[in-house]
Amino acid sequence: ALALGAMRLPLFPLKEVDFVQPLKEVQRGEIERTLSGLLRGNFFSVNLDLLRQSLEKLPWVRKVEVRRRWPGKLEIRLEEQQPVARWGTSGTELVNSYGEVFEAVMPQTQMDALPELAGPTGSSQDVLRRFDEFTRALGPIGHPPRQLVLSPRLAWQVVLDNGMVLELGREQPKSPVATRLSRFVAVYSSTLAERKPGAVD
Predict the structure, then answer these.
(1) Which of 37, 104, 134, 159 could form a disulfide with 59 if both were Cys (CB 3.0 to 4.6 A apart)?
(2) Pick from 92, 141, 85, 90: which is nearest to 117 by CA?
């Protein structure tokens, strides 16, 4: 009891909050507003779980680790979201490198530069995985996908950077989507190879 009482006394004040890596998207003002009022107590009594949960609610934050560093410092490791694609047509939903959907606002020019993915709720990781597979498969023709949609019926549609639309349909054991895509690449490449130089933009 004496030990617990001593820990509550203002004998071990918090003197410093240290972010261990530079931040790109998360603004200092957002962090200060979030931490305001949460740094109650001293080095031992401050609620680390509450700090972590509050910081993880910020738009560009994916994961937070908070640790005590004696004698009076809190060390915060904050992992920012890394957007790799847009999700749907809401204008604010993005997909990170783990295939997780999050909401954030970014300049329209940066948003437009990202590919667009869409699919049923909970399918973002699968859609991102297939997008990477389709991008590698389409490499030989020089026209990467700009849009990948998984319909409610689980049919795949790919839109290339030249506007061509590929309706790949549903995954089937006898005719996998990857096989159908490889056939398209083979036909497309051979068709282009037969044309005279300069005939295709």
Answers:
(1) 104
(2) 85
d(CA 102, CA 81): 8
> What pTM was computed for the model?
0.82
Of 132, 69, 72, whose CA–CA distance to 99 is shortest? 132
Residues 101, 103, 107, 109: what is their CA dihedral angle, to the nearest 10 degrees?
Answer: 30
Lowest mean pLDDT among 70-74, 127-131, 153-157, 160-164: 70-74
- Does a cis peptide bond (omega within 30 degrees of 0) precede residue 71? yes
Distances (CA, A) of 77 to 23, 26, 65, 95, 180: 10, 13, 5, 22, 45
Q: Let me know the angle formed at the C-alpha of 20 by 19 and 24, rounded to the nearest 5 degrees.
A: 70
3-state SS, residue 1: coil
Range in 33-37, 168-172, 194-198 with the lowest mean pLDDT: 194-198
Helix axes 177-194, 124-137, angle to 10 degrees: 30
The number of CA neighbours under 13 Å toward the Cβ of 184 is 19
The whole-number pLDDT of residue 157 equals 97
Q: Which 8-state DSSP code applies to residue 56? A: T
* Side chain identity at residue 180, one-letter code: R
- Say if residues 156 and 148 touch (Cβ distance below 8 Å): yes
